[in-house]
Specification:
The complex is a heterodimer of chains A (about 350) and B (about 325). By secondary structure, chain A is of the alpha/beta class. Chain A has helices at about 5-15, 65, 95-110, 120-125, 145, 205-215, 220-225, 230-235, 285-300, 315, 325-344; strands at about 1-5, 20-30, 40-45, 70-75, 80-85, 90-95, 130-135, 155-160, 165-170, 240-250, 250-260. Chain B has three domains: about 1-65, no CATH class; about 110-125 and about 135-140 and about 210-315, no CATH class; about 150-205, Alpha-Beta Plaits (2-Layer Sandwich), CATH 3.30.70. In chain B, about 25% of the residues lie in helices and about 15% in strands. Chain B has helices at about 15-25, 50-55, 55-65, 105-115, 160-170, 195, 235-245, 245-255, 265-270, 270-280, and strands at about 1-5, 30-35, 40, 90, 125, 140-145, 150, 175, 180-185, 205, 210-215, 230-235, 290. The chains are: A alpha/beta (about 350), B alpha+beta (about 325). The interface of A and B includes residues 35, 40, 247 and 264 of A.
């Protein structure tokens, strides 16, 4: 069922929804960008539709709603412990198709990897209802069409903002009562069909080629360019790595909390082990690890699709202008070289 | 030599055609990049001055009157004074990623307050305390800064901010045992290196543009010296309120008779405490603002005992005998 609802009415619906839901959407933070007088767009709770940024991609992805950068897991007092509480409300999250595809990948890691389900993710995941934001961005960092993440039917509502009104497709009957009596108008969301940036993901034919690719000099370029800041993985819609920290209260070491914090494979020290050993000691090694994970290893393990959803946030957040699409193209060339040398 | 003022060092490129024409038609065919970011045309013959002054009317109209809103009219007689020197600026945040401010906009507002005037003053506006604009060697150095906000929940404890602060700022950040950041706020210069380095947006600039103002810097054959920190974390209103008092202060020091004397010497004659009282007269300081109680400059004297002279040769501020 389709509707066209003016913003004032949308806000009334939001008021109703907020009795049951937290509404999360990309929101503008003026002056909070990396450079002065630039803005930051990231997910936050919203009360009105006007707060939602429809016409620009958020700097940070929707994953922050389900797995916040810092999250308390449990609190301990001597031999007792108490689990942290998730929000009591359900979560209504505005996402683009690429963000929705990214949640699918996150679920694989958090809920389906190694036969283990992460309860902290699960308890958030159960609460989520998705509002699909029709995406007409086509900014030059987007490559969702190449990754096959441009289309989705995994949503409860689909919306597009037009002239101070929201066109809405109500797909999930649970939301029908909120739209009762509102102005009915047919609306079928459209999806991106072509991006400015196109990417062909190379096939790695066998393990020998993979081994040679890992040793290929192409990765050394990143020793000069990458500063190992981790901006790409924090901005990545699909990265899930975290670390845990115990915070003991100063005056009593047996009382405190355990929390988890987003971690990045790009930051030095990520692979540090007890005893002082560590892997991937150069930016090039770390870049290779990330790129192969997103465009080979994940698919090799789960057999369905690549991990990367083509949102392009890693490109727009990299302070050194490293492009993931340019990197994958270099990788394709390297693979061609390796295969050609083998066939000689 | 003709010097065309370029307040804030940024103008429409269309003016370059005029500069080339003046250099080739009236000058000696060369062009000099002015030390204070003016457009310098050397070798204009005495008899050509009226023609050149008439030619630059449109430039003065565009740049001084319209761009800077200076209280003057452009005519055929060239610039009315050369007292206040061109307000310099680095490129600022219209291009530089390190800058905390739009330096051109600030320079234009300062130009409006100090020009045209017979009283000498040298001001330079920098986008950050790195001070590429060399405000430290001007009477007033105006540098864009911020008070930073830190969102502990967005911090991943990577330590990039602490490293950046150590490398190119004052080293006031450190990673604590809980994987979060401690800050020694006494010595933060408000440069924003932490914000630039932060991968998660845990560090952000505060809501208000703030400024750092250094005072009394100068070059010179006699006693060059670097400016000292005069005001820290002040708002634009405070900076402009202060500049609005400059002409009044200068007039009083010189007993209302302008003569060719550099602005820094006026501050010396009045003494810092008197200067502070007059320059901040009626200026409402913002709550974060800090002002130097006293200032002790260190002069690189080119001659020993340059200040030691018969008392009859000492200069005096205010009403002259």
């Amino acid at each position: 069922m389709g509707y066209k609802v003016c913003f004032d009415e949308v806000n009334q619906i939001f008021d109703e929804l907020r009795k049951e839901y937290e509404i999360w959407a990309p929101k503008r933070f003026p002056g909070k960008g990396r450079y002065s007088d630039t803005d930051l767009i990231r997910y936050d709770k919203v009360k009105t539709v006007e707060e939602i940024v429809f016409d620009e991609k958020s700097d940070f992805p929707a994953k922050e709603v389900l797995s916040p950068i810092t999250e308390p897991l449990f609190y301990f007092t001597e031999d007792e412990w108490k689990e942290s509480k998730a929000t009591s409300k359900k979560l209504l999250i505005f996402m683009r198709p690429c963000d929705i595809a990214a949640q699918q990948r996150q679920e694989k890691i958090y809920l389906g990897n190694g036969g283990f389900s992460d309860i902290y993710y699960e308890r958030m995941h159960e609460k989520v209802k998705i509002v699909m934001m029709q995406c007409d961005l086509n900014d030059d960092t987007c490559f969702c069409v190449s990754m096959g993440t441009n289309k989705t039917d995994n949503y409860s509502l689909a919306v597009v903002a037009e002239d101070g009104a929201l066109k809405v497709e109500v797909k999930d009957d649970a939301f029908a009562p909120y739209f009762e009596g509102k102005n009915a108008e047919d609306y079928v969301p459209s999806f991106p069909t072509e991006n400015i940036t196109k990417l062909t993901i190379p096939e790695i034919p066998n393990k020998e080629v993979l081994t040679k690719l890992k040793e290929h000099p192409m990765w050394q370029e990143y020793n000069k360019r990458c500063i190992s800041c981790g901006s790409c993985t924090v901005a990545c819609s699909t990265c899930t790595c975290f670390t845990t920290t115990d915070i003991a209260y100063n005056e009593n070491g047996s009382v405190g909390e355990r929390k988890r914090t987003t971690a990045s494979c790009q930051i030095e020290g990520f692979t540090d082990m007890a005893g002082g050993h560590s892997f991937r000691n150069t930016p090039g090694d770390r870049m290779r690890y990330k790129v192969l994970h997103k465009f080979h290893d994940y698919k090799e393990r789960f057999k369905d699709y690549h991990m990367c959803v083509g949102c392009g946030r890693c490109i727009s957040r990299c302070p050194e202008f490293i492009s993931i699409t340019a990197t994958v193209n270099k990788m394709s060339k390297a693979i061609e070289e390796i295969v050609a040398a083998e066939n000689k | 030599m003709l010097q065309l003022r370029v307040p804030g060092a940024l103008i429409d490129a269309k003016h370059l055609a005029l500069v080339q024409e003046l250099c080739q038609k009236y000058g000696n065919g060369t062009f000099h990049m002015g030390m204070r970011q003016t457009l310098n045309i050397p070798g204009i013959k005495y008899e050509n001055i009226p023609a050149v002054n008439a030619k630059i009317k449109e430039y003065i109209q565009d740049v001084s009157v319209e761009m800077c809103d200076c209280d003057m009219e452009a005519d055929d007689l060239g610039y009315p004074t050369i007292g206040a020197r061109n307000v310099m600026a680095c490129i600022g945040n219209s291009h530089c990623i390190k800058a905390n401010a739009n330096t051109h906009e600030m320079a234009k507002k300062i130009e409006k307050l100090i020009f045209p005037s017979h009283y000498h003053i040298k001001v330079s506006v920098a986008g950050c305390p790195n001070d590429c604009a060399k405000g430290n060697f001007n009477d007033f150095g105006v540098m864009g800064i911020y008070k930073m906000d830190y969102d502990q929940d967005r911090c991943v404890g990577c330590g990039a901010c602490a490293k950046a602060c150590d490398h190119h700022a004052t080293g006031v950040l450190s990673l604590n045992a809980h994987g979060k950041i401690d800050k020694d706020s006494c010595c933060c210069v408000g440069c924003g290196e932490c914000v630039i380095a932060c991968p998660t947006g845990a560090w952000t600039r505060g809501d208000t543009h703030l400024w750092r103002v250094t005072l009394g810097g100068r070059t010179g054959k006699q006693f060059p010296r670097m400016g000292k920190l005069f005001m820290n974390f002040v708002t634009e209103e405070v900076v402009l309120g202060m500049f609005a008092n400059w002409q009044k202060f200068s007039a009083w020091v010189m007993d209302y008779k302008p003569e060719y004397l550099h602005g820094g010497h006026l501050i010396d004659r009045a003494g810092y405490v008197k200067f502070k009282e007059m320059i901040l007269d009626g200026v409402e300081l913002n709550p974060e603002a800090k002002v130097a109680e006293e200032l002790y400059w260190t002069e690189a004297e080119q001659r020993a005992n340059i200040h030691v002279k018969p008392i009859s040769k000492h200069h005096k501020a205010g009403p002259q005998a």
